[in-house]
Amino acid sequence: MRGQAMDHDFWHQRWQQNQIGFHKHEFNPILQTHWPRLSIPEKARVFVPLCGKSKDLLWLLAMGYQVVGVELSPLAVESFFADNNLQPTVRRQGDFWVSEVDGLQIFCGDFFALQTADVGEFDAVYDRAALVALPPDMRIDYVMKLSSLLPTNVQMLLIAFDYPQHEMPGPPFSVQADEVERLYSHWCEVELLTSDDALATELHFKERGLTKMVEQTYKLLVR
User: Fold this and answer.
1) Which of 66, 63, 83 is closest to 23 using CA atoms?
2) pLDDT-derived band at 179, boundaries 50, 70, 90
3) Who contacts 7 (Cβ-Cβ below 8 Å, separation ≥6)?
4) What is the tens place of the pLDDT at every residue in 121-152?
């Protein structure tokens, strides 16, 4: 997979230098508003790829789901549990360190090395910061890997950004609607739920030079 080693170094450095402007200190309102449209039953297993230390893991847990995240950075995983005053048990499983508290598991390691035998099957996926974290040459690999982990009828909530890529280097990267269609439509039903002006609420992106940024929310269903 092209650029994968460079990507590892990049993300480790971002966490070590606390360059994590993508991290939100509150629950994502898009998750709160649109997750119910997926009608995922309580106790279902929800997968959160490239989860960082997102507080959204706690929101999903509070809704009664079994939550499984995967994150490359050990620092991000340690910070998540420390920030939320949680004491996980930690064990080694294959290529991963797995941190667990009731109803929540975070696999620390390379997403691309994850196997169904490691994590079991999922009922739903929440992708707020995975697809948009990856440069174009890694997105196909990401989607292919994700599809290998998911059985039919899994639903996903996907959040993407559409902005003039030349105005700001990613991440997050711009992933336009036609690219979402190309990446997912051959194996998922794709429904655009909302398109919102992200610059109205994400003011730091204006400071980075953006003149336009649309946050798009998709509901996907694996065929």
Assistant:
1) 83
2) very high
3) 134, 135, 138
4) 999 999 999 999 999 999 999 999 999 999 99
Residues 6+ apart with CB under 8 A from 40: 46, 65, 123, 124, 155
Whose tokens are 């230390």? That residue is: 53
Q: Is the dihedral of CA 34, 61, 108, 18 positive or negative?
A: positive
8 phi and psi, to 5 degrees?
-55, -50
Q: 160: part of which helix (H) or strand (E)?
A: strand 155-162
Calpha distance 144→147 (Å, rounded): 5
Tokens of 160: 């993407």
Q: Which pair of structure tokens corresponds to residue 162?
A: 């559409």
> 3-state DSSP: the chain helix, strand, coil percent, rounded to 5?
35, 25, 35
Output the pTM of the full model.
0.91
Cα–Cα nearest to 10, from 60, 72, 88: 72
